[in-house]
Amino acid sequence: MNLAQKPIPYEKVEAWLVSYKDLKAKLEYTQSELKHIPGLTRALHEWVNHSNSRNKEPLLRTIIHRIEITEYEIPLLLSRIGLMDYALSVLTVEEKLFVRLRYLDKLTLPAIMDRLAFSRRAFFYHRKRILHKVYQQIKDREALMELDSFGED
């Protein structure tokens, strides 16, 4: 490794891999929220026509939330997932299996070692090599992975 190179943030890369499954689930959920827009449009028309008799704030908050989802949340999730897909595409079949077992299925170290017939030393060698490969694909767009989702604390 060249001394001028930035060290690989292994813990950060592992956090990205662990969050991959959650990002996909969150995208699916946020996209499902948008299915209610036709009902929201009807409610907005009713609200405009009968604005004196209805409480406006919940409807306005819902509209703002839907706009935030379409303008910010979904594009950010798609970008993150796409970046992770790109990074994972450079892995071999064996490396992808390792990632699935370790970070998506969250199996224990002994379970993965048994499944892949790895010694403890081989496990950590493969882990480090895989994390390095993933980071090399993401490093120039690392800031995208660090952005907070809209509305997160």
Describe the structure.
The protein has helices at residues 10-33, 37-49, 57-88, 93-104, 109-116, 120-138, 142-146. The model has no long low-confidence stretch (mean pLDDT 83). 74% of the residues lie in helices and 0% in strands. The chain contains seven helices and no strands. α3 crosses α6. With 153 residues, the chain is an all-alpha fold.
H/E series: HHHHHHH
Number of helices: 7
- Average predicted confidence as pLDDT: 83
**What's the total count of β strands?**
0
Q: Note the overall shape.
A: elongated
| Class from secondary-structure proportions | mainly alpha
Low-confidence stretches: none
Rounded radius of gyration (Å): 21 Å
Topology:
Blueprint: H1 10-33, H2 37-49, H3 57-88, H4 93-104, H5 109-116, H6 120-138, H7 142-146
Helix pairs in contact: 1-3, 2-3, 3-6
Short description:
The chain is an all-alpha fold. It has helices at 10-33, 37-49, 57-88, 93-104, 109-116, 120-138, 142-146.
Give a quick set of tags describing it:
153 residues; mainly alpha; 7 helices; 74% helix
